[in-house]
Design goal:
Elements (H helix, E strand, L loop, with lengths): L1 H39 L5 H8 L6 H4 L1 E2 L2 E2 L5 H13 L2 H4 L3 H19 L7 H8 L18 H6 L14 H19 L2 H10 L1 H11 L11 H18 L19
Antiparallel strand pairs: 1-2
Helix pairs in contact: 4-12, 6-9, 7-12, 9-10, 10-11, 10-12
């Protein structure tokens, strides 16, 4: 009778012990698997993260633009022309800091007016290029900071007569320039083309666009002055915003423009 009870008890005891052993080994097995998985996981180091975040520095051509309209990258002809005109505006060539002095005087007046008319801030550099830093009268009769011809000036609200010439009034002439620029943009729909049209005239530029069946300024065949005009404006922008890069060693005096 005792033997009959001993056998079932032994079986139960054996099963209980096996269950304990199995339950104990399971977590160990899981821990072992986790360790193996961790060994195969590549944890990025701080240095590798920095490498991923660091981007290759942009080329000079990729950085240049007018009113956020970029130059055609990879065009060697455009690149050579841009570099040549930039070099012509370096401190070694011009030997003057008048650019920065005039910009300091004019930009606080020009910038808010451009913004009020919804015109890109880069158009303030046209004033520097147009006036030749003197605001004098051109051989054709254009005068003032924005170099308006008398008829054009009057059509945009400026008084030009024997007693008064508002082409020399910075605020009023800038308002007139904004009206003129905005009107040209309605038809051209490119700020780069508007800048070129400011130099050669709206009608003449439209005629060239039609004749050449081309509306990319950088690919158009224009007279020498207009063909270099936007390049000169971009060069002016670069010199004013990055004076040391172009040899202007004196401390930058610009405090007003919103470039950087």
């Amino acid at each position: 009778m005792l033997k009959k009870h001993i056998v079932p008890f032994a079986v139960v005891a054996t099963l209980f012990i096996m269950a304990k052993v199995f339950a104990y080994q399971m977590p160990l097995a899981q821990k072992s698997l986790l360790k193996k998985e961790k060994l195969h996981i590549t944890i990025p180091t701080t240095d590798s993260l920095k490498v991923e975040k660091e981007e290759k520095p942009q080329s000079l051509m990729a950085q240049l633009n007018f009113a956020d309209e970029t130059l055609p990258l990879g065009d060697k002809k455009v690149e050579r022309k841009m570099k040549k005109i930039l070099a012509a505006h370096s401190y070694g060539s011009t030997q003057t800091n008048r650019l920065h002095k005039k910009a300091k005087e004019w930009f606080p007046v020009i910038e808010p007016i451009l913004a009020a008319y919804g015109i890109p801030n880069d158009f303030k550099y046209l004033a520097l290029v147009e006036s030749g830093m003197a605001g004098g009268v051109s051989p054709k009769g254009a005068a003032g900071i924005w170099q308006f011809m008398p008829g054009t000036a009057r059509s945009y609200g400026l008084k030009v007569n024997g007693r008064v010439d508002e082409r020399y009034n910075l605020r009023k002439s800038t308002v007139a320039a904004c009206k003129y620029i905005k009107e040209m943009y309605k038809g051209l729909e490119s700020w780069t083309l508007v800048a070129a049209a400011y130099n050669v005239g709206d009608g003449r530029l439209r005629k060239q666009i039609t004749n050449q069946n081309q509306d990319n300024y950088y690919k158009m065949k224009l007279n020498q002055e207009t063909g270099r005009y936007v390049y000169k404006v971009i060069s002016m922008k670069q010199i004013v915003e990055h004076p040391k890069r172009y040899g202007y060693e004196k401390k930058r005096v610009l405090l007003a423009y919103n470039a950087e």
